[in-house]
Amino acid sequence: MQRPENGSLPGKPVSASAVELATLVEVADTNPMGNIHGGVIMKLADQACAAAAIRHAGRICVTASVDRLDFRNPVHVGDMVVLKASLHYAHRSSMEVGVRIEAERLQTGQRTHVASARFIFVALDDECKPVAVPPLIPHTPEEHERYRRGEERYRERLARRQQEKNNASPPA
User: Fold this and answer.
1) How far apart are the C-alpha atoms of 61 and 133, rounded to whole Å?
2) 3, 47, 57, 171: most buried by Cβ count inside 10 Å?
3) Are 72 and 113 within 8 A, CB to CB?
4) Percentage of the chain modeled with pLDDT above 70
């Protein structure tokens, strides 16, 4: 596994920036069926992932893209939404952060997998320019696998952006 040159920044383990966020679903968060709006889930996921990215980078980070967000189950009024976010991969100034979203029935403690997502963040300096982030140090086999797959997705996104740039029509 190659790590990008990030100056003399010391690496950080995945656990150093992991975040768990929980919030109660209220009526204002839901549709007429009593299920949480997908946009509310997206906002919470973005917040949890941003917190993990900022912890890792030690800098303000902005959302660059959402790689994917797959909804699996509904969340109802009165449920607790629990979001667990952690870095999968860090490159020079960008980071892939994954989040698992669960709904907990507070009366029973039963949890259901609601959605999973991957967000891409970029760390910014005081002039709002991209700045280097510490290398990510995976420790567990699961973290190593997420890192490997995150690196593959990074290269795929880079190739896709280059292809799009090459296919862009010249200005009229």
Assistant:
1) 10
2) 57
3) yes
4) 94
Phi and psi dihedrals of 13, rounded to 5?
Answer: -75, 160
First to last CA, the chain: 44
CATH number for the 14-167 domain, one of 1.10.1790.10, 3.20.70.20, 2.60.40.10, 3.10.129.10?
3.10.129.10
At residue 41, does pLDDT exceed 60? yes
Contact criterion met (CB below 8 Å) for 89 and 146 = yes
Show the CA angle centred on residue 72, arms to residues 13 and 158, nearest 5°.
Answer: 50
CB atoms within 10 A of CB 157: 16
CB 159: neighbour CB atoms within 10 A? Answer: 10
How far CA 14 is from CA of 58, 130, 155, in Å, comes to 14, 21, 21
Going by C-alpha positions, the residue among 67, 58, 92 that lies closest to residue 146 is: 67
Integer Cα distance of 39 and 149 in angstroms: 27
pTM of structure:
0.90
